[in-house]
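re the bet — no i am not wrong, look at it urself. input seq straight from the record:
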Amino acid sequence: MPALLTVDNVTQAFPLKNGGTYVALKDIFLQIAEGEFVTLIGHSGCGKSTLLDLLAGLTLASEGGILMNGQEVTEPGPDRMVVFQNYSLLPWKTVRQNIALAVDNVMPQLSRAERSEIVERNIKLVKLTPAADKYPAEISGGMKQRVAIARALAIRPKLLLLDEPFGALDALTRGNLQTQLMEICQEAKVTAVMVTHDVDEALLLSDRVVMLTNGPEAYIGQILDVPLARPRSQLTAVEDPTYYGLRAEVVTFLNQQRDARQQRLKPKGSVACGALEKVNLEIGFVPLTDCAPLVMALEGGFFARHGLDQVRLRRETNWKTLEANLRQGVVDAAQMVAGLPFAMTLGSQGRSPVLITSALTLTRNGNAITLHRRFHEAGVRTVADLKAWISANAGHRPVLAMVHPASMHNLMLRAWLASAGIDPTSDVELIVIPPAQMVATLKAGTIDGFCVGEPWNSRAVQEGHGTVIATDTDLWDGHAEKVLGVREDWAAAHPHTHQALLCALLEACRYCEDPANRQELAELLARPEYVGTKADVLLPGLVQAYDRGTGVPALIPGFNRFFGPGVNAPDRAEATWILTQLARWNVCSFPGNWEEVLDRVQRPDLFREAAASLGLSPEPPSTPASHKSFFGAEQLDPSDPAAYVQGLQQELPLRIEAVVLPPPPPSRRPVAAT
């Protein structure tokens, strides 16, 4: 569906009395479809109302612009109406007269009878006919707000802007008005953007919730799709099995923004320990089996051994919030899906670029593709069977979930589908869901399958909801799965700390690889502060035979790989493939200066330095053999990926554009030559 409204990389700055500038919003990109209800949420000072003013045309952006139906918004207009929290009714006019004032001014070309009919229809729409001749002082706050909504809708705006419209109302009145607003928007087919602080209100009303980070320089930290069926009510919403998972995502984001603000207000300066610039580190992770190296580095004392004796592991619910926290400096380092360092560096999906340094691969393999049990019962055993099932069931387009657009889950799932002639963009619907919500969403029937890391595939199998149709070892045995990422400027400012971090995690990876330590590892991961599930769910693939749900569990050597030849060092050819696939599936453009991007993101020199200090082989890994045999990458020459991407352009509209990278930040010490 084409966008009705496009916020095109808007930055809004205000002059200060001291001659400085306050940047309220930074690089905001947002597209809103016709008929969509979008809510803006975030803490006070994040720029929600500033963005609403820009949409209304009450102010103009310092940089970028706003387009509505292809026309730039430069001033207020009747195609955009604002409903404020304070009603803004004229006290000397009745309900009918307040609404008529707007209609008479905007539609003077209509006859008096036509204008009167519009006024009466909108009074009826908000259920105020009995109060039509009353003055604002004679009606309740909820009724006043309905008058404001009717006045806005009466002039037939294309966009309804609501600035905390129910914030001053009591809970009962608010609930009734929320229901009426949903009915009105559905009946009038109105596109709406609303500002609110109420998480439940946002989920009840919205198709998408846009979450803004703290100011100054606030940006869109996360956009949450709300797949709750319409028509909705408060009761049906909270009874939906996905509701509390969605609510948890928004609350977690807001809590993390609160923590980020508190951390920003702390006195600057880091704790020194010998040669280390900082020892009090916050490291982000997502609760999955392959967070094991981080957990073991902490619990096994590897961090402390290398002088990092004040490390805190921060449990994130999903990769979007982890990315936002790394951007803002809430965390010093993070476990990341393999494509995320490149996506952040390139500025994917409208976000501003943040250069990421990745010098260590933490894990390889560990994922699987699980389909709902009914597919296995229908005879679907391979991707070719799935293709046949899709052809035979033209009325049902399977909905498949993955964890992040830049994850190997997304790239490999799409490549797996495409290998059988299934078009990932049209034959199936691909959506993003946090890993921990996969099983519940599959059970609810909202999705038909997913690609995710353990233990969520095993849990779906053990609970009888799903069957594993393919694992990583079937698809690309030995691919990079999770990597360590830090901001490039952080690495430059803390070079000794960064090396200590690499050494500690590399030692932890070696410990995790030993089969003798896997049972201990499962028990640690089962703790609530880490993965928080039963150890029995963590054991398949990690220690025990892997159960695909077919009744024949089997050992899968290398299902989880943490350490060994070709495991931990950054692999340039593999990274080149990732860049091409990010472009192939429109996650971000392919960088014309791809060699420069690889040099800045991947740092094998730092890996070699850490390996040498531990007495390990500093040799880089060889290119995985299966890299050429699967994924249709026969044409990909790692020394000339642009040719491969140009070949894909014959089938898909791909973008190739040079990325302007800032100069590397100065390091506090020299590092070994690459």
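see?? The longest helix spans residues 243-265. told u. also Residues 628 and 634 are 5 Å apart (CA to CA). so pay up
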